[in-house]
Amino acid sequence: MPARGPVVVGIDIGGTKTAAAVVRPDGSLAHRAETPTPAQAGPQVVLDTAAALVATIAERTGITPDAFGVGSAGAFDEHGVVVHSTDHLAGWSGTDVAGGLRSRLGAPVVVVNDVHAAATGERTTSGLERFLFVAVGTGIGGAVVTDGMVLLGASGMAGSVGHVRIPSARHRVCSCGGADHVEAFASGPGIELTYAEFTGRARDLRSIGRLAAEGDVIAAQVIRVAAEDLGESLASAVVTVDPGTVLLGGGVSGLGALFIDPLAERLRASLRPPFADVRVEAARSGPDAALIGAGRLALESLPATEADGSPAHS
Fold this sequence. Notes:
The chain is α/β, with parallel strands linked by helices. The protein has two domains: 8-107 and 288-307, Nucleotidyltransferase, domain 5; 127-283, 2-Layer Sandwich (Nucleotidyltransferase, domain 5). Helices cover 39% and strands 19% of the residues. It contains ten helices and twelve strands. Strands 3-2-1-4-7 form a five-stranded mixed beta sheet, with helices on both faces. It has a five-stranded mixed beta sheet with strand order 10-9-8-11-12, sandwiched between helices. Helix 8 (257-269) links the parallel strand 11 and strand 12. Helix 6 (205-213) packs across helix 7 (217-241). The longest helix is centred in the last third of the chain and has 25 residues, at 217-241. The N and C termini lie close together (9 Å).
């Protein structure tokens, strides 16, 4: 049988959907598939769903994966067990994600926080070795990459920039239960809530962005203030880790210049040299960053004889 390089599959388990794909060494994806996540059905059903999705890919393509990488919300210990999570996935805390999928899939499994996985995806596609990755979507997460490595921290949640408290008289409760965290104001739901408070009308993020692009003053101001709040709150992280570049991912970053430009302006205005020339850019891996990163981590977990493309088991 001719030699082949290792085959790794990335899995992204989110509160809304679960996606999987073969991840090539250059970060490109093949045979991508997704399915709704049964988020409230319990962890074993969620793991069953992920395993079934991989089985569908394997059956369709005839591949036998050598390893799997998983990105999912929550903090994980070194064994791939959830040590802390929100209620986006019911009963997720305490779940042995690595062990559960390993028993279902029959190959090694590496599990990391989804934002850390996305940062690894950005490292893979951008080639950057040092940056602060900020994912702004339903919540706000972050990851610090330095010398090509994602900083995990003692709890596995280093870079949680959304849970920095900002000065506010509104006393808004964050998804974590804390008060006036920047996530409560600058995330997608935070922007939607602020718009509703000012106008008395409920709009989703996409609609608010469209209104702002069409010249709606209130919509534009709501987005600008949210971006400025986040930009100012990121200053302490930039001073602490000196990343040189801040990459913005997640659905809110899809607002483009309406969000990114005021964020960058406020961030730089909050800094002094040598930090004030920090670059702020849109992330490059798109919505599949966590898939790419999870697959890359799976590849890096393999013995060198497999990861470098030498013969692997079939």
